[in-house]
Amino acid sequence: MKGFTRTEPRFSLCGLNCVLCSMHLGGYCPGCGGGAGNQSCAKARCSLEHGSISFCWQCPKYPCSHYESFDDGDSFVPHRNRKQDIAQAEKLGLGAYLAQLEEKRAILEKLLAHYNDGRRKTLFSTAVYLLPLEDLRFVMAALDSRAKPGEQAVRERALAAAELLQEAADRRGIGLKRSQKPKKG
Question: What predicted TM-score, i.e. pTM, was given to this entire model?
């Protein structure tokens, strides 16, 4: 969208944790305002109309009609918790929130580098995106206390990581599988 730029590519205007998004990490999306990404985004257009605000929560009209049923049943995981993530960024302050996102990104990179058997990227990405940081720290500490990556087959490491992440998600009632949008009508 002409005239729309972002100074913070790790956390989007509408609350996406871009730094953890598999599309962004894979180089398929530069993030809003970062180039050829979703240039038809209604929220980007709205931002321009409201003085080029950096984040929707800074708008006096937030939450507006753009946020009705915003996170309901979207199969694209980064879209699931945007309102919750915006609230967390507001509460902690952007700097502290971004520091947490960077710690989560480091955890995801470690999972992908040392525990991925070629079948777990989606699970790891989803779990890191949705689980609270304290749960991820616990899972990583448990994995670190086991055999070192070179001492165990990658398949065994992947299974152990997947089990620990699923247990953490189950304790929180967080589904790590894609959800479908409710049918209209």
Answer: 0.82
Domains of the chain: which residue ranges? 8-92, 103-178
Nearest 5°: phi and psi at 97? -65, -45
**Residue 73 has which token pair?**
């049943």
What's the CA gap between 65 and 139, in Å, rounded?
38
Print the SS3 string covering 86-138: HHHHHHHCHHHHHHHHHHHHHHHHHHHHHCCCCCCHHHHHHHHHHCCHHHHHH
Distance CA 81, CA 90 (A): 14
Per the prediction, the chain carries an average pLDDT of 83
pLDDT of 79-106, one tens digit each?
778 888 889 999 999 999 999 999 999 9
Element (H, E) at 86: helix 82-92
Q: What is the per-residue pLDDT for 166?
A: 96
- DSSP 3-state assignment of 151? helix
| pLDDT exceeds 80 at position 39 | no
Question: How far apart (Å, rounded) are the C-alpha atoms in residues 31 and 158?
Answer: 29
